[in-house]
Amino acid sequence: MLLSGEKGRRFTVAGALLLAGVLTAGVLGFQRPAPPAGPVPPSFLHIVAHPDDDLFFINPDIVQAMRTGAAVTTVYVTAAEGNGKNVVRGRNAGAPVDHPAYIAARHAGVRRAYAQMATGDPAARWSRRRVHARHGFVEIDTLAARRRIALVFLNLGNWLVDGRVRRLTDLWRGTVPALATRPPLGGTVPESRTYTRGALIAELTWLLRRYRPSVVRSLDPDPERGVDAKGAEHRTDNPDHTATALLAREAVARYARAGAPPPQVVYYRGYYNRHWPGNLGQETVAEKLAFVGTYGWADQGTFPCHEPGGCGDLQVGATGALSGWPQGTHPRYPGTARWLRPLPDGRLAAFAVVGGRVLRWEEQAPGGPWRPGVPLPGDGFLPEVSVLRLPDGRLAVFGVQVVPGRTLTEPSYRVVYATQDRPSGGFGDWRDLGNPAGGAPARLRDVGATVPAVDGAGRISVFVRNGGLGVSGRTQRADGAFGPWTDLHGKRVQDGLAAETDAAGRIELFGAALPAGWQWDRPSGTPGLWHWRQGTPGGPMGAGAWTPVTPGVTGPLTLVRDRGGRLDLLARQANGGGTVLFRRPRPAGPWPGTGTVLAGPGGYGPVGAAFAGGGALWLTGRSASGSAAVHSGGGWQDIGGLFLQAPAAAVDATGRPVVAVIDTQGRLRVARRSAASGWEWRTAGTQAP
């Protein structure tokens, strides 16, 4: 859904689209999903509030999944009836209000967009069925040419109650006992029904059992804060997006507690996309906008439309780029490339969150095969961890854990870490470092990804992006206990910080950030960096400073240290699809203000980096196709395979470069380069029960 009054660059949808398909309708009786059994094949379930949330904020990840042949299902929780006027924005004065017709038009538009993504033909035929779910009938539409592509419409409406609009967020908070649905014109479920919060969670759980996804995607459960032009602070996303994500998270938790294989869960930023620099290449943006234009019926008049409410959402039309949303795809938890580390005996160890638990994998022998993943104690972890190697060779794992609060809607978020009891040994209990928000419950959810570093005095510091879009840190004292959280300030810093220790033993910390000329409705100026440096090992971090750089960059960032102690900083090129390398000319020298652009690989997210023999830097990152790519001086090479979070890089005990990813089934996959056959992938066992 677009906001009124937004301005920006316009993209057009190239070419006329084909004739609209004939839709068929059927009726099915109650269907009880079969209980989960055996391994879960790759399958993606998206749970979003409105048609177009997936197209604006989750793509290109959806179309990339379709291109692998995986099953893709999207559930739309609300009716998304808006003002009920399916007219071009700015021309709605005097237009009649027809909520059922507008809902139907949005459904028709998203069917056309999914058909185009899956088959190239927006007119491809759909089978529309009335299916008895856990709490009554729902409409499930299946693409005839790709039976593993489906759309589910629940249609909860917004209603005026006691003089105010009651919506999905009220149902989540418990301020209304139930919400009724708004059936679309011509839908297969013409009757209205009501959902309580418990019934809606049960319905989503039923859909999880039906589709058995290996990956669940939704929008942001913890949206960023902003300050509007009048100085008022508020959450920056549509409240329906937030409520849907929180409902989805609870449904996934109940699904897993019932014994089902827990899916991987990925959340995406919503409206705040327009406040950060674009992080996609221009070809990806153009394709993303083409699908948005198809949804918006930008080709109206080029084919006969037989849908009763219209063939798309004219409020979006051909103006999708004006919102600033399609130019980026920003996961809420952007991940880190620092989850693959060497052990003192030369073996590699990997750590990742799978189904809310932290799993640990290790090589059986240096450079050899891997043992199956073993879970560390505890659950409820957000989907990213960062691993630090301590001076004595032990590893420390840092993450954020969500623990139940007094009520369902008030969980607590805390930064935690666990360390090995000895080098290559087991891990002790998780230790609670609290939250930089302290006792402010409303701000606990704002905590960002953990970024640890250890200085030359052997003291650990951990940094997070805080709710004020600055940075907070906590540092060990001489006795090993951690001091209090300290506000390191910084402004408009993106999540996805990078920290490393220089040759003098001082911690350096970077965050991608927007310049002082930032405006509420759109970034302005060239995005650059905030930089902090420790004065002396064991001392506090120095004051941070805004650093303009060329070209503009966007996070997350990566710092890597060579054997001589020199640091390299890696970032994604803002609005360009390239990778930017800032190379410090000498270990203690100044940082350059101009980086070297390595064209490609076109994706988003952090870049993994490692120094191979001879000091050569090689990189890995997400490509424009969504798969892993590597760079070793001769350009980027796509080595295949969809994955979640970020790829990690290392050099094994035999001197071979290693790329590791967590695949869409929650398994560790490792690629090593062979002189004879290039990159060879191996699956490192399955997750332990």
UniProtKB/TrEMBL annotation:
Alphabetized Pfam families for the sequence: PIG-L
Membrane spanning residue stretches: none
Region (Disordered): 219-239
Keyword Protease: no
An example Gene Ontology molecular-function term: hydrolase activity, acting on carbon-nitrogen (but not peptide) bonds, in linear amides
UniProt cross-references to Gene3D superfamilies, sorted A to Z: LmbE-like (3.40.50.10320)
InterPro entries (alphabetical): GlcNAc_PI_deacetylase-related, LmbE-like_dom_sf
Keywords tagged on the record: Zinc
Top-rank lineage group of the source organism: Bacteria
Full protein name: PIG-L family deacetylase
GO biological processes: glycoside metabolic process
